[in-house]
Design brief:
This protein has helices at about 25-30, 35-45, 60-70, 90-100; strands at about 105-110, 110-114. The protein is mostly helical. A hairpin with a 2-residue loop joins strand 1 and strand 2. The termini are far apart.
Length: about 110
């Protein structure tokens, strides 16, 4: 059997769609190849800190706690964690609960509130 008689499936399939509303579409955005490239680079790439350039490495919760514990006394740190995700509406009770827990600032949709 020759290689010409075999049928190979494509590694990536691209849908052809109509023109977008963007006045300057590129081949990457029109065919959504950009999304696949982003996924590829996220899998094979090595993340680096955008501020200092150091490589970002996976840390366990214990490693993070140890790193915070050796910081000088009085050093301010910021702990960020999603409390509400993909839920619309008003969440006043969440704000009240975290205030009672002793937190003084909250970041909502990327904006700090204190």
């Amino acid at each position: 059997m020759s290689i010409r008689s075999k049928v190979f499936s494509p590694a990536v399939s691209i849908d052809q769609r109509g023109a977008s509303s963007n006045p300057r579409p590129t081949v990457g955005t029109t065919t959504e190849v950009y999304d696949y490239m982003r996924l590829l680079y996220a899998r094979v790439g090595i993340p680096h800190c955008p501020v200092c350039g150091r490589e970002v490495q996976l840390q366990s919760a214990d490693q993070i706690v140890d790193a915070v514990a050796v910081l000088p006394k009085g050093r301010r740190i910021q702990i960020l964690a999603p409390l509400i995700k993909d839920r619309k509406g008003h969440h006043q009770q969440v704000f009240e609960d975290i205030r009672k827990a002793g937190y003084v600032r909250v970041r909502v949709a990327g904006a700090g509130r204190g």
